[in-house]
């Protein structure tokens, strides 16, 4: 609007100097560059965000797809418009018939072929259930009825085509000629007629080769007979049965007797009512013979031909001629037939030998073609060489389709020949054919991957080809117009050329191309085109057909749905992929090929739903994949990880230069494989398998956690597998007995294990193995880490229950009259004689007590009552030692857990910090939990729980009560006990040097711990110390040693060797006893420290009162301070 209001003197600017065009081109180039960059960015984002997209993209997942096939909006009547009305009618009729044939062919290929082929498929592995066959056939009857209608329609179309052709080529002199047909050959119509007859032949072949269908049909008929005899039982009215039986008879006669094609050919084509003669039409016969190539050829060489009609249905001309053409059967004798079979076998063997070479050749061809596609399509259009550029693109596209066609033919024919001739296929042949399948899918995916650029090119190429065709037709038209002779024939030629031009001036739809081909059948007569013009025109039109239907042709030629019938090769293929892991990515192509049969399965009618067939197929393929690839891969990876972790065991030779090496990591670089409604992620599958295996095996043997952790790390480094931590409580190889096990069987533990006070270790008394088990602080700490610190209090509770039982036995022993009376006697004796014995309890008295007890009786294994009492005290002491170890292990575990806290004296309060930041309630609660955990760990690591104090406090009041006065004599039994203990200890240590080590031991500090604990409970440390027992022992043994030394000096003079040896042995024995007593003294002194032996019960009570008073004073002073 603004430009128009400007002064008229701007009008000169309308002069076109070409600058606007240049500017537009620059902008367009910039815009296209921006689009390309933006597309690349989007693809990058998509790949980064979505791992589920495979290397080979599934067509069904395209969010937006380009359909390149143009659809015709105009009807045939609108397309075929010239001034020549008769010609219009002729072309319209033939075009309509050809279109009808195409529709019928498409319907047969999509619906009827698949419905018949897949009948009986998808059954259960266990076999067909009784009655299932009849049910399937019952569902299938309606489909057969539709097929019957379809066949009838085909018959009608065939008759109509023949009638229309016979009407045009009429030998009746009296009949009026429609158009001059002497030089007109409608080759296109004959081609379409042939296609329709092939459809009927294919249906015949499918039904003839379908054994399951025939068997089920027979069963169904038998069922119908039984229904007929007893219709009431099946609730079917009898009047409905007869029409149904008639229908079945009709279906069987029309479809199942192998007469579909024969019945079509044997139809009555002469129709006097319409006045069309066929049988006696000589001109039509000549025309028919002209259009169908001559059958005069060498029978044997051409009968070897084998044609794949569809999927796994192969057609042999010799079989067909013998069964359908009696005249041909007469010409061929048995020798000829045997020669044909022999030659066919030879051909198959030759094919098998050359298959690998062919595959290698096509591998080179297809890969170079893919490179050409990438290079041509990535180049920008050069405006100066646009025609050459489009021509080269067209040739590359056509080349791709030709490669696909050749590969598809080789694969189908070879596989079907092996199947039909029932010959075994070698592994080499299977691998070669599978490689060819991959190449076929590679061609398809190359077209699909570059579909945007292909779409752009196709529209330009079709325009160029249409232009070339129009130029050729225009030249011919000028030639026709330039000739002045007029005739109806010349007028027909001119009209047909005009019609072809009109059809080409528009989108390249299949209807328009059909009209062009039919029009040129008329337009090429009278030598309108020179020979050198006609061939290029025909080539251009063929290219136009290919390019216009490029995507459809690629889809048809690369369709691998036939692999469903040859899926037995899949295990061999997977084994090959596994053995050659380097190019594992090719598996995507094979799965893409296996997926091709899904659309055709959707037309299966014999099952309740086609989903059942799909599920069966899916299950079958997945089972094969799991067995031949995934499970093998899982086990190999696991084996490799195990052997790598256990290299120190020096297992099999794993030198890759000797035994070879398979790099299975290539499988984990693959993107997920799309199959049906799932993505098969090999990496995730193997990771899950290893996670599951490692977890299960760790639960069985928790001490192996470190090994599996190492294997996880190795899997991550070597194969890039992101493993999940098991989060199981870890154990070490030195776990020893578990705390829970000891706790549950503490009575067994204290009797079978010996305590060492200084090293804080328990050692097994005796074992059937060659080694003894030990338990130390580290074992207990690991066990607490496994079960949590809560186990500590539970263990102490169990120990308390155990001590209660043991103290009951202890009390009974002390209450025994023999023991009590002896002890009271000894106490009275000591009080009376302590001044004479220098306040020391006499050693002889203790020794006499120890020996005297034996008179009361001994057990079958030679133990006195004092021995048993000593063992009881040792067990009590062991229990206390175990409690001490639990406390030490808990401190050890807590210190390990809290070692990551920087400063134990200054731990921040996380809950307060969260409140300050005003974070969510969940965060506040989490912070509170963290504070509580840190608080617990800090208090536990700093001091731990005083379990000894608790166990003293719980039993002391009862021990010191009046009703247990008999226990007050305990301190007096300690000296005889120590004598008994020392004798036992020396005996055990001496057994260490003997061959039979039964009963051997080198430590038993449980006795010292037990004595110290019981003395504390009875508050008898002072009473025991008043005996000065260990001083008395020292004095006794030193006195004896001095006596022995004097004797030795005397005997040294007399030089009596035997006596000297006796003296030396006596000295050693005395030294040994003195040493043992000293060790016991030290152990008992150490044990007393745990129970604060320096203070009496009264002193401890006074100390407790003082602490309480101090605490109350500090509490009362606090308010006063704050008030001031």
UniProtKB/TrEMBL annotation:
<feature type="domain" description="WASH complex subunit 4 N-terminal">
    <location>
        <begin position="305"/>
        <end position="561"/>
    </location>
</feature>
<dbReference type="GO" id="GO:0005768">
    <property type="term" value="C:endosome"/>
</dbReference>
<feature type="domain" description="WASH complex subunit 4 N-terminal">
    <location>
        <begin position="33"/>
        <end position="294"/>
    </location>
</feature>
<feature type="compositionally biased region" description="Polar residues">
    <location>
        <begin position="1113"/>
        <end position="1124"/>
    </location>
</feature>
<dbReference type="Pfam" id="PF14745">
    <property type="entry name" value="WASH-4_N"/>
</dbReference>
<dbReference type="GO" id="GO:0007032">
    <property type="term" value="P:endosome organization"/>
</dbReference>
<feature type="domain" description="WASH complex subunit 7 central">
    <location>
        <begin position="562"/>
        <end position="905"/>
    </location>
</feature>
<dbReference type="GO" id="GO:0016197">
    <property type="term" value="P:endosomal transport"/>
</dbReference>
<dbReference type="InterPro" id="IPR027307">
    <property type="entry name" value="WASH7"/>
</dbReference>
<dbReference type="GO" id="GO:0071203">
    <property type="term" value="C:WASH complex"/>
</dbReference>
<dbReference type="Pfam" id="PF14746">
    <property type="entry name" value="WASH-7_C"/>
</dbReference>
<dbReference type="InterPro" id="IPR028191">
    <property type="entry name" value="WASH-4_N"/>
</dbReference>
<dbReference type="InterPro" id="IPR028282">
    <property type="entry name" value="WASH-7_central"/>
</dbReference>
<protein>
    <submittedName>
        <fullName>WASH complex subunit 4</fullName>
    </submittedName>
</protein>
<dbReference type="Pfam" id="PF14744">
    <property type="entry name" value="WASH-7_mid"/>
</dbReference>
<feature type="region of interest" description="Disordered">
    <location>
        <begin position="1099"/>
        <end position="1124"/>
    </location>
</feature>
<feature type="compositionally biased region" description="Basic and acidic residues">
    <location>
        <begin position="1099"/>
        <end position="1112"/>
    </location>
</feature>
<feature type="domain" description="WASH complex subunit 7 C-terminal">
    <location>
        <begin position="923"/>
        <end position="1092"/>
    </location>
</feature>
<dbReference type="InterPro" id="IPR028283">
    <property type="entry name" value="WASH-7_C"/>
</dbReference>
């Amino acid at each position: 609007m603004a430009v128009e209001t400007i002064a008229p003197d701007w009008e000169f600017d309308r002069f076109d100097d070409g600058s606007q065009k240049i500017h537009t081109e620059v902008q367009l180039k910039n815009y296209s560059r921006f689009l390309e960059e933006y597309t690349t960015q989007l693809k990058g984002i998509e790949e980064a965000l979505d791992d589920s997209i495979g290397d080979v993209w599934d067509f069904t997942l395209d969010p937006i797809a380009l359909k390149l096939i143009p659809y015709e909006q105009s009807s045939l009547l609108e397309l075929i418009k010239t001034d020549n009305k008769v010609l219009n009618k002729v072309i319209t009729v033939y075009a309509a018939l050809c279109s009808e044939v195409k529709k019928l062919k498409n319907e047969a290929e999509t619906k009827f072929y698949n419905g018949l082929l897949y009948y009986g498929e998808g059954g259960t592995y266990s076999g067909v259930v009784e009655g299932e066959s009849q049910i399937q056939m019952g569902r299938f009857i309606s489909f057969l009825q539709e097929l019957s209608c379809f066949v009838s329609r085909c018959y009608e179309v065939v008759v109509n085509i023949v009638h229309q052709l016979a009407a045009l080529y009429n030998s009746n002199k009296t009949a009026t000629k429609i158009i001059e047909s002497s030089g007109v050959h409608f080759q296109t119509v004959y081609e379409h007629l042939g296609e329709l007859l092939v459809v009927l032949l294919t249906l015949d072949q499918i039904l003839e080769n379908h054994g399951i269908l025939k068997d089920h049909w027979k069963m169904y008929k038998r069922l119908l007979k039984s229904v007929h005899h007893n219709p009431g039982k099946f609730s079917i009215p009898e009047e409905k049965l007869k029409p149904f039986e008639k229908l079945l008879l009709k279906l069987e006669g029309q479809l199942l007797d192998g007469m579909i094609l024969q019945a079509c050919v044997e139809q009555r084509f002469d129709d006097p009512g319409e006045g069309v003669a066929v049988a006696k039409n000589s001109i039509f016969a000549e025309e028919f013979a002209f259009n169908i190539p001559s059958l005069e050829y060498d029978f044997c060489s051409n009968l070897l031909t084998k044609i794949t009609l569809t999927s796994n249905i192969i057609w042999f001309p010799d079989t067909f001629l013998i069964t359908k053409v009696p005249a041909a059967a007469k010409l061929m004798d048995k020798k000829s037939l045997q020669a044909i079979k022999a030659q066919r076998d030879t051909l198959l063997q030759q094919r098998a030998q050359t298959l690998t070479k062919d595959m290698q050749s096509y591998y080179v061809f297809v890969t170079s073609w893919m490179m050409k596609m990438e290079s041509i399509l990535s180049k920008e259009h050069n405006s100066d060489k646009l025609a050459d550029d489009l021509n080269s693109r067209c040739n590359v596209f056509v080349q791709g389709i030709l490669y696909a066609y050749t590969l598809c033919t080789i694969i189908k024919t070879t596989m079907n020949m092996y199947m039909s001739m029932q010959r075994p296929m070698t592994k080499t042949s299977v691998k070669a054919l599978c490689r060819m399948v991959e190449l076929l899918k590679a061609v398809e995916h190359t077209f699909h991957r570059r579909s945007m650029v292909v779409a752009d090119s196709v529209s330009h190429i079709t325009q160029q080809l249409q232009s070339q065709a129009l130029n050729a037709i225009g030249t011919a038209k000028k030639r026709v117009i330039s000739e002045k002779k007029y005739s109806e024939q010349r007028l027909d030629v001119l009209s047909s050329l005009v019609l072809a031009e009109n059809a080409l001036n528009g989108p390249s739809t299949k209807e328009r191309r059909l009209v062009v081909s039919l029009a040129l059948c008329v337009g090429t007569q009278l030598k309108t085109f020179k020979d050198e013009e006609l061939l290029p025109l025909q080539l251009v039109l063929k290219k136009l057909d290919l390019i216009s239907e490029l995507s459809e042709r690629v889809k048809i030629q690369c369709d691998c749905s036939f692999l469903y019938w040859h899926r037995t090769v899949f295990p061999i293929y997977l084994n090959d992929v596994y053995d050659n892991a380097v190019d594992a990515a090719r598996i995507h192509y094979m799965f893409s090929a296996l997926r091709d049969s899904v659309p055709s399965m959707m037309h299966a009618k014999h099952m309740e739903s086609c989903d059942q067939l799909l599920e069966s197929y899916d299950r079958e393929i997945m089972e094969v994949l799991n067995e031949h690839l995934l499970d093998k891969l899982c086990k190999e990876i696991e084996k490799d990880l195990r052997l790598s972790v256990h290299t120190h065991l020096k297992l099999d030779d794993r030198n890759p230069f000797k035994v070879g090496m398979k790099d299975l990591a290539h499988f984990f670089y693959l993107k997920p494989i799309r199959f049906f409604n799932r993505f098969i992620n090999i990496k995730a599958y193997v990771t899950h398998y290893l996670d599951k295996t490692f977890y299960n095996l760790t639960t069985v043997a928790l001490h192996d956690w470190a090994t599996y952790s190492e294997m996880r790390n190795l899997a991550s480094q070597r194969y890039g597998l992101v493993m999940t931590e098991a989060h199981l409580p870890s154990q070490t190889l030195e776990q020893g007995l578990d705390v829970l096990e000891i706790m549950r069987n503490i009575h067994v533990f204290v009797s079978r294990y010996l305590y060492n006070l200084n090293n804080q270790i328990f050692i097994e008394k005796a074992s059937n193995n060659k080694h003894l088990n030990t338990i130390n602080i580290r074992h207990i700490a690991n066990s607490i880490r496994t079960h949590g610190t809560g186990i500590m209090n539970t263990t102490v509770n169990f120990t308390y229950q155990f001590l209660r039982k043991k103290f009951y036995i202890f009390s009974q022993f002390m209450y025994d009259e023999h023991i009590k009376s002896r002890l009271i006697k000894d106490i009275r004796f000591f009080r009376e004689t302590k001044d004479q014995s220098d306040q020391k309890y006499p050693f002889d008295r203790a020794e006499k007590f120890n020996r005297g007890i034996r008179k009361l009786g001994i057990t079958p294994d030679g133990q006195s009552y004092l021995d048993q009492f000593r063992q009881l005290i040792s067990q009590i002491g062991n229990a206390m030692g175990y409690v001490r170890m639990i406390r030490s292990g808990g401190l050890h575990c807590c210190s390990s857990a809290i070692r990551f806290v920087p400063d134990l004296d200054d731990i921040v309060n996380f809950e307060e910090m969260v409140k300050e930041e005003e974070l969510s309630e969940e965060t506040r609660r989490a912070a509170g939990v963290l504070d509580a955990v840190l608080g617990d760990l800090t208090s536990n690591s700093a001091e731990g729980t005083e379990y000894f104090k608790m166990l003293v406090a719980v039993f002391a009041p009862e021990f010191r009560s009046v009703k247990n006065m008999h226990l007050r004599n305990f301190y007096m039994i300690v000296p005889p006990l120590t004598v008994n203990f020392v004798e036992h200890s020396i005996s055990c240590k001496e057994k260490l040097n003997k061959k039979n080590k039964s009963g051997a031991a080198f430590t038993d500090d449980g006795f010292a711990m037990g004595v110290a604990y019981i003395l504390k409970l009875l508050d008898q440390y002072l009473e025991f110390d008043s005996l000065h027992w260990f001083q008395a022992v020292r004095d006794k043994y030193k006195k004896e040693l001095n006596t022995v030394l004097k004797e030795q000096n005397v005997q040294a003079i007399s030089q009596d060797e035997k006596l000297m040896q006796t003296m030396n042995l006596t000295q050693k024995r005395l030294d040994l006893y003195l040493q043992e007593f000293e060790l016991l003294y030290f152990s008992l002194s150490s044990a007393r420290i745990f129970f604060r032996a320096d203070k009496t019960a009264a002193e401890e009570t006074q100390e407790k009162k003082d602490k309480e008073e101090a605490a109350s004073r500090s509490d009362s002073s606090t308010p006063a301070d704050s008030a001031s």
